[in-house]
Structure prediction request, 199 residues.
Amino acid sequence: MIALHQRTSWIFDMDGTLTESLHDFPAISRALGLPEDEPILEALACLTPSAAAKCHKQLAEIEMDIARQATPQPGAVELLRDLRKQGKRVGILTRNTKAIAHETLVACGLADFFQPDDILGRTCCSPKPKPDGILKLLSAWSTTPANAVMTGDHKFDLIAGRSANTAAVYLDPQGDCLWQDFADYTVHSLEKLRQLNSP
Prediction:
């Protein structure tokens, strides 16, 4: 396996990875009238088109409110600055919409690190855990999975990375060890990931 510091293409989940985690997913599910024990996008896919449209509108309003309160994960600025200085490509793959991702990155002071076309949300491709967004970015960057890293705080991020044959990095700030079986690397901070990226 190619070492992390040799990989030139870095893709990040956003919420809970580059940002501090603010989402209370069970509460959001309750607000939408969805089962608390199912992922929200998958639960929405089971609704009738009219019910789904109403819920998607309500979800976007909830997510936009959260986006405007977003703060960066400790070490995010330093890691992204290093990657850009090293000439590496950086992208975002989120289950949020592209518009909400942009709002979140602006609130966190991270927007300038990313080209607009390198931010993909659920309206751009099939959402994680499907690898479509990763493969779309890599194709646009004319690179291969062997040169890429997918970093996230949830198993959907890691499954997407594994399915795309990139390195999968699990950010586990609380040390919960919930998803490390899906990861090639587990780190407890972005500073630790920054150290792994140092030659």
